[in-house]
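User: My instructor asked us to take a sequence, write out its structure as tokens, and then describe one feature of it. I'm not sure where to start. Here is the sequence I was given:
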Amino acid sequence: MKSNQVIINWVNKDTSILDLGCGDGSILEILSLEKNVKGLGVEIDPKNIQSCIDKGINVIEQNIDEGITNFKSKSYDYVLLSETIQVLENPEQALLEITRIGKSSIVTFPNFAHWKSRLGLFFLGRMPKTNALPQEWYNTKNIHLCTIKDFESLCEKLEISIDKKTVINSNKESFLFKNIFPNFFGELITYQVSRKI
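Assistant: Let's start with the prediction itself. The structure tokens for your sequence are:
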């Protein structure tokens, strides 16, 4: 199961969603068509913004790292941060903001403790490349890589509730073990989180 399908399954029909780092707007387009979701994308890349516009997706140009305080508290049913948190300068602040803005928030990221990453670093002595982390160390946008345990520890520190968690793999090799040892076998993680404010 890919992360987009998990997101689609978790989002209820006829709700509102703010997608931070929305990319080309693909997930918002699917949610709009399949779930009648009213969405707004936030993106910084001009090509992605144009792709959103071409698809009829509402999008604004804004740098998440410069703040998203222009959104009112609990103004969206969901805030989505899909494979974006690891590229932000301040993931802690981003988590606080998305749980302020959204009644519920969905966060996905590549798990740096996945066995392929561990073995690549240990045996090859090089920064790992996996399906979830395909770039070289020098051209990746990822600046804050974390693990399942790191993310859950940060949520506990910030008093953010973890409401759901799904471990995703690009193949079936560790299907039986991913739920028993998620930090070792989980390649991509999707969380649904919330915070009372």
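For the description part of your assignment, you could build on this observation: The two ends are 33 Å apart (CA to CA). Try explaining in your own words what that tells you about the chain.
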